[in-house]
Amino acid sequence: MLKVRFSARPADQRATAIFKKALKSERAARIASRLLGAYIRFVQRTSRIEVIGLEHAKALEAASPRGFIVAFWHSNILLAPLVRDHLSRRLRMLVSTHRDGEIIVNAVAGFGVDFIRGSAANEKKADKDKQGASAVAQMIGALDAGDAVGVTPDGPRGPAMSVQAGIVRLAAMTEAPILGFACVASRRRELSTWDRFQLALPFSSVYVVVSPPVRLGAIESHSDVADAKARIKAALDDAAAEATGRAGGRFASEAKAAATEAAAS
Q1: CA-CA distance, 181 to 76, in Å (whole number)?
Q2: Are 202 and 38 in contact (CB under 8 A)?
Q3: 153-162 residue pLDDT tens
Q4: Fold of 10-260
């Protein structure tokens, strides 16, 4: 099967330009949402989807009526419908109040995914709430009700594949386990966005990988937060590396390490 490698092709640049234009116009955003929703359905209907590690999610669902956290990198934000298809719990996704978040919400509205609007607190902009307090309260309520709460630990503005403190605080407050997910298609494009957004192409083999749950202990110091971030990142990176390996290609961090090693030799 054809493998589409990551590159800055003109088609990728055009797709990125279209998305950025949609962020500046409400009408364009509505059109983009409709097109994106239709595109997701087309990809799902024309692709073979394989889920690896689903037993980790099923074990959590069977073990407790309380909810758990579903985490994946922002580049996989359109994974939400696939996650929902394989969970017996209600899925509530945290999505930013930015216009790009609005596009995602409207695009995925018909897939059975519910949304919590807001953003985790930005450590560098603590004076700007961004509806964070309301979002945290809603996520805690959802977990108490037994729902799965979806979070992109590097969202909404990055850095890409860098875990922010918000997910650590949520897991510590609720004692909810964290399931890492990754989704990679054998035919895909990587857009020139801050998160290197991965756009699955139709007629693909799509691999969804679920990592073993991460359970955090007490968070009492900065070193505890750093350790928790590292554990969450490792779970997401491991899932992404396995999904990428099955789909064909190299996970971004592995490719970067290989390039650095080659340059040094």
Answers
A1: 9
A2: no
A3: 998 888 999 9
A4: Glycerol-3-phosphate (1)-acyltransferase (3.40.1130)
Whether 19 contacts 198, CB under 8 Å:
no
What tokens were used for 136?
Answer: 């945290």
Task: Write the pLDDT tens digit of every residue in 212-222.
Answer: 999 998 999 99
Which residues on adjacent β-strands are paired with residue 95?
A: 117
Q: For 146-193, what is the HEC assignment?
A: CCEEEECCCCCCCCCCCCCHHHHHHHHHHCCCEEEEEEEECCEEECCC
Cβ(57)–Cβ(86) below 8 Å: yes
Query: Cα–Cα distance between 11 and 9 in angstroms, integer?
Result: 5
Q: Quote the pTM value.
A: 0.83
Collapsed DSSP state (helix, strand, coil) of residue 202 = coil
**To which residue do tokens 């995914």 refer?**
113
Sites in the chain below the pLDDT cut of 50: 1-8, 126-127, 255-256, 258-262
**261 Rama class: left (phi>0) / alpha (psi -120 to 50) / beta:** alpha
Task: Using alpha carbons, list the distances in angstroms from residue 153 to 8, 50, 58, 199, 221.
Answer: 26, 24, 22, 19, 20
> Are 237 and 84 contacting, i.e. CB atoms less than 8 angstroms apart?
no
DSSP 8-state code for residue 214: B
CA–CA separation, 24 and 26 (whole Å):
7
Burial 185-224 (b: 16+ CB within 10 A, else e): bbbbbbbebebebbbbbeebbbbbbbbebbebeebeeeee
